[in-house]
Amino acid sequence: MSMKLSALAMELGLEHTGADIDITGVNTLEKAGPEDLSFLVNPKYQHLLETTKAGCVLTSGPYADKAQRALISDNVYMDLAKVMNIFARPQGCLRGISELAYVHPEAQVDESATVYPFAFIGEGASVGPKTVVFAGVYVGEHTNIGANCILYPNCVIMGGLHLGDNVILQPGAVIGGDGYGYAQTPAGHMKIPQIGTVEIENDVEIGSNTAIDRAALDTTKIKRGTKIDNLVQIGHNVEIGEHCLVIGQVGIGGSTIVGNGVVLAGQVGVADNAKIGDGAMVGAQSGVAGNVEPGSKIAGTPAMKAGTFLKAASVCMPKLPELFKRVKKLEKELAILTAEAAGGDCNE
Amino acid sequence: MSMKLSALAMELGLEHTGADIDITGVNTLEKAGPEDLSFLVNPKYQHLLETTKAGCVLTSGPYADKAQRALISDNVYMDLAKVMNIFARPQGCLRGISELAYVHPEAQVDESATVYPFAFIGEGASVGPKTVVFAGVYVGEHTNIGANCILYPNCVIMGGLHLGDNVILQPGAVIGGDGYGYAQTPAGHMKIPQIGTVEIENDVEIGSNTAIDRAALDTTKIKRGTKIDNLVQIGHNVEIGEHCLVIGQVGIGGSTIVGNGVVLAGQVGVADNAKIGDGAMVGAQSGVAGNVEPGSKIAGTPAMKAGTFLKAASVCMPKLPELFKRVKKLEKELAILTAEAAGGDCNE
Amino acid sequence: MSMKLSALAMELGLEHTGADIDITGVNTLEKAGPEDLSFLVNPKYQHLLETTKAGCVLTSGPYADKAQRALISDNVYMDLAKVMNIFARPQGCLRGISELAYVHPEAQVDESATVYPFAFIGEGASVGPKTVVFAGVYVGEHTNIGANCILYPNCVIMGGLHLGDNVILQPGAVIGGDGYGYAQTPAGHMKIPQIGTVEIENDVEIGSNTAIDRAALDTTKIKRGTKIDNLVQIGHNVEIGEHCLVIGQVGIGGSTIVGNGVVLAGQVGVADNAKIGDGAMVGAQSGVAGNVEPGSKIAGTPAMKAGTFLKAASVCMPKLPELFKRVKKLEKELAILTAEAAGGDCNE
User: Fold this and answer.
1) Distance between CA C252 and CA C213 in Å, rounded?
2) Contact assignment for A180 to B118 by CB distance below 8 Å
3) Which residues contact B49 (CB under 8 A, 6 or more apart)?
4) Residues B44, B50, B52: CA angle, nearest 5 degrees
5) Smallest Cβ distance to A78: which of C136, C190, C193?
6) Judgement on whether residues B185 and B251 belong to the same structural domain of the protein
7) For residue A95, is it within any domain?
8) How many cross-chain Cβ pairs, A to C, lie less than 8 Å apart?
9) Tens digit of each residue's pLDDT (9 = 90 or more) over B87-119
10) B141's torsion region: left (phi>0), alpha (psi -120 to 50) or beta?
11) I need a labelling partner for A12 at 20 to 30 A (CA). Which of A112, B337, C11, C66 fits?
12) What does the alpha-carbon distance between residue A278 and residue C47 come to, in Å, rounded to a whole number?
């Protein structure tokens, strides 16, 4: 892959400084060579502009002059994403439907789709155009997979589910395993069969080894544009809104409803039956129960306003042992003063 | 699937109100149609009885009159589980032992079992009657799987293990990976081979992508009726008692012993070599080390009485910054008072 | 497997007490029989020396006399690891390259390697001598796997990666899934293709269902001798030093750099772009952001000195409700005293 800088600039609708060159790849400021494009967003790293060997640097106006050659952008990350889409080589080395796959006679696989060896496509399932099903993937009966999806190796999509278009499942993701539901009986926990489904809308990405449970009844839903990281647990009947970011190892309890544009940072836990309003941001490792106001920023276990938590946990907590001493001292001193006041009372 | 309400009531040993109808499915109060059975447990949702189109509602006595037609139960969840077992269609679309599976010549697979394509059954392994082994499952050498088990796609059960009857492994669950054991040596961490086993008793269910390590020596044990959720980590030589509930993303360190009927809520961490008494309940995200009294309710990191934690974390924590101010004010005021007392002493 | 105690002692370079016997296995003090070797490290269990039926006990000098027969070691765990390596039977029941595997014509698999049925080896990939690739493993295109590696069932190693020698991947581990990187655009989160790689150095072990993301650009790196437990999440561009211990369910955000010999206890979360110095130890469930001094011991969220956290969280936290009462009492008493002082002022 090689492309003129001028052609790249035109494709992105950007201006570039310096003479035209061939661009053959993308790399970091430290690793880029004279035919690589690199990028700068964080001012903290601007000193690297002096030493980088990058042929051209994608950056915003203020830094353009400091680079030998620059591609000037108002949204560097967005244009970086576009550039990398041009230079990225997609994963995989096969095309077409492998004879080593199992495709049920009653399944519908679009002829433009790719199905790797050892993939399993169940009865009545469908796989849309240009979708890639890697090795070891299981697509259960009557599950519909849209167009342009990528199902990386060893994903499991159980039966009766619906995935939209442009959905990406990283390796080992499990969609539609049974929800965790049991009736308490004298003989122990009796399994409540989980006969609902999961719906994953367009443009959703789901991380490695993440688990999204099917609904007990009705539907577990992940709405369009939401991006879920690795090792996340999403319980039955959860609904996650559009364009959310759910970072690694978050856990969400059953029937919880998450609004649009919500950010749940790493290792957050959300109880079952909670409601998180649109645009809320929850700090890493926080524990959320009940309702969260739209647009609020919260942190801690149980979660409180993020600013309060930060003060309480990072400023106050370390001084707690000292505070107990100060209060004890106050009590002593006050007792002495009180005794003195009583003893030295003028009226006596 | 279609069944007379009267026949369903008889099968469950329950009474119903209203005229007899055909029941063809189960759904929520909001989604149910005139041939569906629905249910009500939580009084919070009783207003839905007015608008539901459900043909019949499974509920307890007090709500029966409010539904057009009711099936009256003292344990709604239990009877719901029974009803759903009647109407649930099990996952899967194949029967019998696929020619695309690998079954070692020295393995014993019961003729009533199902083995999907790309499943692997190792030397000397056995698979009991009516057990279903989905695609991509690995059953290691000399591992015994009981009757009526369901091993969902891409589960791994390493060699030399024992699973009882009616065991369910959700997709991607890993049983018998090596425990995390290393000897410290001048040359680095030396692996201690993990030559023990795992025993999973009858009626245990294990969630998607959960990992249960084999013992270093001896046995990691999950006792009968215990239900483990998704993405749980259970270390080597752990013993979990009967009828426990271990919720999503819990982690349990090596050699810890958990009693019967224990509930560990989501994201709880238990250190190694801990002991948790029968019937104890541990709140979400708590950190447990050492011993936990039977029947106790604890929470927090490190865990304390749940009531104390709730007060300390949700009431006191947010007010800590203010408390520091109050103490500072007290100190100032007391200093002034002390100075005044000294200065204004009558004896002077 | 059977071996004379005297021969075993010679192989380990240790002395033994008592008459020579045949050793046929290793087990715990409670389970060992007269032909088993057992071991004692923790003095807490020394009473078991009186009742054990073990033929010989591997232990340190002070306890040797208390056992009927002892193998005396200065590093019991290390010698135990060596003994168990002698008696351990490796997992697996096949040898050679199965005809049921998919090996791309352009892949290089050493003839001494083992490849199980349903394993996938992509174009241009290489598998080194004596490496074992279990069933359901995916090795992506142009990925190099060194010698003596064990890739347990259903592991995924995406394309373009490098694994050194003696690397062990427990079942379901995912190496080289896409990092979590999106550009914010008016139309939603735009995926930034992750075109970097992952390098796993020699002697690294990675736990069941752990996920290690490929770099956005450049390399995610796990250095030699580091041992990573189950269900750990490691973000893109992370570097983990040599001989670290990363315990179960730890999560590490993107671009974080972890030094050598670091210990991250269970469920620790580390933010992105953090730096953890050599030899630091982070307590279980802690939350780390920013920089951590080499050799420091920290705990809590956000993390502070471990000693401070322990005092604050386990001693002070439970007494917080009481502290608030004490401060309130002080305020009342001080108010009374102040009023009295004003009222009873001698000068009045």
Assistant:
1) 10
2) no
3) B29, B40, B57, B63, B66, B67
4) 90
5) C190
6) yes
7) no
8) 221
9) 988 999 999 999 999 999 999 999 999 999 999
10) beta
11) A112
12) 60
| Neighbouring C-beta atoms of residue C124, cutoff 10 Å | 17
Residue of B nearest to C204 (CA): B189
Distance, in angstroms, between A228 CA and closest chain B CA?
15
Tell me, yes or no, whether C183 and C268 share the same domain.
yes
Q: Locate the chain C residue with the closest alpha carbon to B192.
A: C81
For residue B30, the domain's CATH number is 3.40.1390.10
- Say whether both B179 and B250 belong to one domain: yes
The confidence score (pLDDT) of residue B245 equals 98
Contacts of A219 (CB under 8 A, 6+ apart): A196, A197, A198, A199, A237
Asked if the structure places residue A14 within a domain, the reply is yes
| For testing contact with chain C, the best of B139, B195, B237, B345 (most C CBs within 10 A) | B195
Provide the domain count of chain A: 2
Closest chain B residue by Cα to residue C151:
B177
Whether residue C332 lies inside any domain: the answer is no
- Does B312 contact C330 at a Cβ distance shorter than 8 Å? no
Q: Is the CB of C316 less than 8 angstroms away from the CB of A338? A: no
Longest CA–CA span in chain A (Å) reads 107
Give the model's pLDDT for residue B319: 96
Contacts of B168 in chain A (CB under 8 A): 178, 191
Size (chain C), residues: 348
Cα angle B132, B135, B140 (rounded to 5 degrees) comes to 75
Same domain? A128 vs A63: no
The band of A346, judged by pLDDT with boundaries at 50, 70 and 90, is: very low
Res. B189: pLDDT tops 50: yes
Query: How many angstroms separate the CA of residue B131 from the nearest CA in chain C?
Result: 21
Range of the structural domain that residue B263 is part of = 102-307
List pLDDT tens digits, range A282-320: 999 999 999 999 999 999 999 999 999 999 999 999 999
**One-letter identity of residue A68:** Q
Nearest-CA distance A346 → chain C (Å) = 7
Taking contacts as CB-CB distances below 8 angstroms, the residues of chain B near C118 are 102, 118, 120, 136
Are residues B313 and A333, on separate chains, in Cβ contact within 8 Å?
A: no
Tell me, yes or no, whether B276 lies in a domain: yes
What was the pLDDT predicted at C213?
98
Among C301, C312, C334, select the one facing A318 at the smallest CB separation: C312
Rounded to two decimals, the ipTM of the complex is 0.95
Instruction: Give residue-wise pLDDT tens across range C292-319.
Output: 999 999 999 999 999 999 999 999 999 9
Measure A88 CA to nearest chain B CA, in Å. 30
Inspect the interface and report whether the beta carbons of C330 and B330 lie closer than 8 Å. yes
Whether residues C31 and C177 share a domain: the answer is no
Question: What is the β-pairing status of strands A182-185 and A162-163?
Answer: unpaired
Please classify residue B14 by burial: count the beta carbons closer than 10 Å to its beta carbon, then call 0-12 exposed, 13-18 middle and 19+ buried: middle
**Could you say which of C171, C229, C323 has the minimum Cβ distance to residue B174?**
C171
Per residue in A149-191, pLDDT (tens digit) is: 999 999 999 999 999 999 999 999 999 999 999 999 999 999 9
Q: Give me the CATH number covering residue A293.
A: 2.160.10.10
Residue B157: name the closest of B226, B191, B225, B204 by CA: B204
Rounded CA-CA distance A58/A80 in Å is 7
How far are the Cα atoms of B156, C101, C110 from residue C96, in angstroms, in the given order? 21, 11, 10
User: What parts of chain C have a pLDDT lower than 50?
Assistant: 346-348
Closest CA–CA distance from residue B50 to any residue of chain A (Å)? 20
What 3-state class would DSSP assign to B336? helix
Best residue in A108, A175, A184, A191 for a mutation probing chain B (most B CBs within 10 Å) = A191
pLDDT tens, position by position, B284-341: 999 999 999 999 999 999 999 999 999 999 999 999 999 999 999 999 999 999 888 8
